[in-house]
Structure formats: C-alpha cells, structure tokens
Specification:
The chain has one domain. 82% of the residues lie in helices and 0% in strands. The protein contains nine helices and no strands. Helix 6 runs antiparallel to helix 7. The termini are far apart.
Length: 208
C-alpha cells in the first residue's frame, strides 16, 4: 500500500502538470506554439526520467526498432489520411477544424517545426506519456485498464484546443502508440514512430 501511494502521488502530480502545460500551449495564444509544445513535452520528459531513470536505460535501438518505427508511422499516416477523407465528407466543420490545427504553427519555418518535432517533441512526449505515465498506470491497474486510462488522459489534455478533430486525433494516435508500447515492451520504436509521423504530417506532407 505504501509503495502504491509513493508511486501514485508523483504520477498524479505529473498529470496535473501536463494539463497545465497543455492549457498554456493550446489555449493561451501568446508565444510560438511549436516552442511551447516542445518545452512542455521536454519538461515532462525530464521529470519522468528523474522519477523513473530506467525509462531511458531500457531503450533498445537497432535495425528492427527502426523498421518497426518507420512502418508504424507510415501505417498511422495512412489511417489519418483515410480519416480525413471520410470526416471531411461527413462533417461540414471537419475541414475547418483540421485547418485550425495547422494554423497554430503559422509563421514558423517548416524546417524549424520538423527539427523540433523529430528531435524534441516526439521523443519527449513518448518518454512521458507512454514510458512513464502508461507504464505506471499499467502496473497499478493492469495492462488493459492502464492503456485505456493513459489514452484517455492523453486525449483529455487536448481539450484545451477546443478542437474536437484534434482531440479525436490525439485519442487515435495515443491509443495506437499505447498498444505498440504495451505489446512490444520497448519504447524505442514508439519514439521513432511518433517522431517520424509528427514530422511528416505537420512539416513534410501536411493534411491541411
């Protein structure tokens, strides 16, 4: 019981911190969006590494890891492309809301966005959201419940965007990467997947 309390308190504290960071990033309009999201993700990653150093020590990068990361990123991009095609035909506001996601980065050079997403935001988000949050939730509540809770929290903090397409996208992507982490028990391919996918979808082949 004492060990569970020792783990639960910092876990809840980081969730609150994530909610605050995502509020500042998505709801408040001051400063540059891509700098804010990178800074927020990096701080959460640093905190989670301090609380759980094994997150980094257990990373395994090899050819198989790279292949899984690249293939999963391509597969997830295909899911989003299909989802955009269907949603824009069924929902009149879908196109406007998707455009609103990309509008947050207006004024920032694409090469800057690509570098931030690939080397800072993507890896940092996975270190916290899957490597720390989901890992501990799965140990506390079981694999299925932990994955579901982590996915719900990841989607939930995006509510500050007031954009239901973005919230839905976060839920789909979070569930996808959460299953990858759950089944592979290795954070490395998930980091690669997130980093490549986000770089491609926001900076190389955007869907706006």
């Amino acid at each position: 019981m004492r060990n569970e309390k020792f783990r639960t308190f910092p876990l809840m504290a980081t969730i609150l911190l994530a909610a605050i960071f995502w509020f500042v990033t998505f709801y408040l309009t001051w400063s540059i969006f891509w700098i804010k999201i990178s800074f927020s993700a990096a701080i959460l990653a640093i905190v989670s590494i301090c609380l759980q150093p094994n997150t980094i020590k257990k990373l395994k990068f090899d050819l198989k890891t790279l292949s899984l990361g690249m293939l999963s990123a391509a597969f997830l991009y295909g899911i989003f492309w299909l989802a955009k095609l269907i949603s824009t035909h069924l929902l009149s506001v879908a196109g406007h809301q998707i455009g609103g996601i990309y509008a947050k980065g207006t004024g920032t050079p694409m090469w800057v966005i690509a570098l931030l997403l690939c080397f800072f935001t993507g890896p940092s988000e996975e270190i916290y959201w899957r490597g720390y949050l989901q890992h501990n939730l799965m140990e506390l509540f079981g694999p299925w419940q932990g994955w579901l809770l982590a996915t719900a929290i990841y989607a939930g903090v995006h509510i500050w965007s007031l954009n239901f397409m973005l919230i839905g996208a976060a839920a789909v992507a979070g569930a996808f990467w959460g299953i990858m982490y759950w089944r592979l028990k290795n954070l490395a391919p998930v980091i690669i997947s997130h980093s490549i996918w986000s770089t491609v979808i926001f900076a190389i082949f955007p869907m706006s």
